[in-house]
């Protein structure tokens, strides 16, 4: 009976965390695809790569630190609240920005908040759903992504209502949407108040010590693969710029991005459950391979119909990877340091994304639009091969539970 109550309490906690992400991502995705287009009016593509890479690198470094602090002081909820609060400040700065410098400051604010909140939030999901990690991360990803999809739909609806000529950039329409996106961010913060955190009364002498921390070799090697893969996984801003270069106007780009999020949301929970049943490797490896196919598709296909299909396939890749990968990392992480290991995972992604975005911007400018996507596709195939080897290697699992 006690165990059933704990499971029920954990599910409720995961749903509340999912609702937090639902509204925060609704707010964020109301502006993200618009920001990429908005920024292009002030900056070149290589500068976009520098800005995105720099912003993601800050988030990456903070993910490890916030994960460690959350484990050590058992203050994951407070860290998450602090990080999510930046979603409001981000939109305010965007509203007042009128140059690439202002937009860069806004993006840095957003990424700093993401760096602070992501790891504590994922750790809260992990500790709430120990018995079915794939399903737990799948539920959270589903709500998170449905929120993102709804945000894009609202942005599309507002943009169509506010703009008479879709072939031009309407700055005032952008700013109106930026301001309205603050409302769902505030709602998300309210839901966070209902989330419960375990172990908030941990004794000082039992707190996490990095000196005594033992990390499973499987985790270490897998983090190396994550870093390698991320070198070819540049910012989604480049996918948006690819769509605009293929002739999609702003409102149509929003619909493409909506397709990506809807597919990811629909398949996130089924893929999470499937990873619990058949194992993480059987989803992660095909997920990396699918990414390689999709990015090569972006490199060589230019028709509007093909881009629509590719954005949908990209959403499927996200659904296959997100829950399965985090569940795999969590299973092999030391019990007392799951947040720290999830943070290292986020840091490897972020560091890779920093160089990936810088490289993508340079390749785009120097070798053409197809170059960054060819590189990303090749890195996806290489990572699939390496992940297949590392995830199958018989390391012991003694630290995970």
Q: What labels describe this entry?
A:
401 residues, mainly alpha, Growth Hormone, Chain: A
What is the CATH T-level topology?
Answer: Growth Hormone, Chain: A
Global mean pLDDT: 85
Separation, N- and C-terminal Cα atoms = 22 Å
Q: How many strands appear in the DSSP assignment?
A: 0
Q: In this structure, how is the largest beta sheet organized?
A: none
How much beta, percentage-wise?
Answer: under 5%
* C-alpha Rg (nearest Å): 20 Å
CATH homologous group name: MFS general substrate transporter like domains
Q: Share of helix among residues?
A: over 70%
Give helix and strand order, one letter per element, not per position. Answer: HHHHHHHHHHHHHH
What general form does the structure show?
globular
**Count of helical regions:** 14
Which CATH-level-2 architecture? Answer: Up-down Bundle
The class by helix and strand makeup works out as mainly alpha
């Amino acid at each position: 009976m006690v165990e059933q109550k704990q499971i029920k309490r954990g599910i409720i906690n995961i749903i509340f965390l999912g609702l937090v992400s639902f509204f925060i991502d609704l707010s964020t995705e109301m502006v993200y695809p618009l920001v990429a287009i908005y920024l292009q009016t002030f900056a070149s593509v290589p500068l976009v790569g520098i800005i995105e890479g720099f912003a993601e690198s800050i988030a990456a470094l903070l993910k490890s630190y916030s994960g460690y602090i959350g484990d050590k002081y058992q203050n994951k909820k407070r860290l998450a609240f602090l990080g999510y609060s930046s979603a409001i400040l981000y939109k305010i700065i965007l509203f007042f920005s009128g140059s690439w410098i202002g937009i860069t400051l806004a993006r840095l604010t957003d990424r700093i908040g993401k760096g602070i909140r992501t790891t504590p939030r994922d750790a809260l999901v992990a500790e709430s759903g120990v018995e079915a990690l794939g399903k737990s991360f799948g539920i959270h990803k589903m709500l998170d992504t449905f929120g993102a999809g709804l945000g894009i739909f609202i942005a599309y609806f507002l943009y169509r209502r506010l703009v008479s000529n879709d072939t031009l950039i309407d700055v005032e329409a952008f700013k109106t949407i930026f301001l309205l996106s603050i409302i769902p961010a505030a709602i998300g913060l309210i839901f966070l108040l209902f989330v419960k955190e375990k172990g908030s009364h941990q004794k000082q002498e039992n707190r996490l010590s990095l000196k005594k921390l033992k990390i499973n070799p499987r985790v270490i090697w897998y983090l190396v693969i994550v870093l390698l893969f991320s070198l070819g996984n540049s910012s989604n801003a480049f996918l948006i710029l690819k769509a605009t270069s293929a002739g999609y106007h702003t409102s149509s780009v929003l619909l493409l991005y909506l397709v990506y999020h809807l597919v990811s949301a629909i398949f996130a929970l089924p893929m999470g459950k499937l990873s619990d049943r058949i194992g993480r490797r059987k989803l992660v490896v095909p997920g990396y391979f699918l990414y390689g196919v999709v990015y090569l598709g972006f490199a060589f296909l230019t028709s509007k119909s093909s881009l629509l299909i590719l954005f949908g396939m990209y959403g499927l890749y996200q659904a296959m990877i997100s829950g399965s990968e985090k569940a795999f990392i969590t299973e092999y992480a030391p019990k007392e340091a799951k947040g720290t290991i999830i943070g290292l995972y986020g840091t490897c992604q972020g560091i890779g994304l920093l160089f990936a975005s810088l490289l993508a911007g340079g390749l785009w400018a120097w070798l053409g639009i197809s170059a960054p996507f060819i590189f990303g596709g090749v890195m996806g195939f290489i990572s699939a091969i390496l992940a297949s080897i590392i995830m199958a290697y018989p390391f012991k699992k003694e630290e995970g539970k």
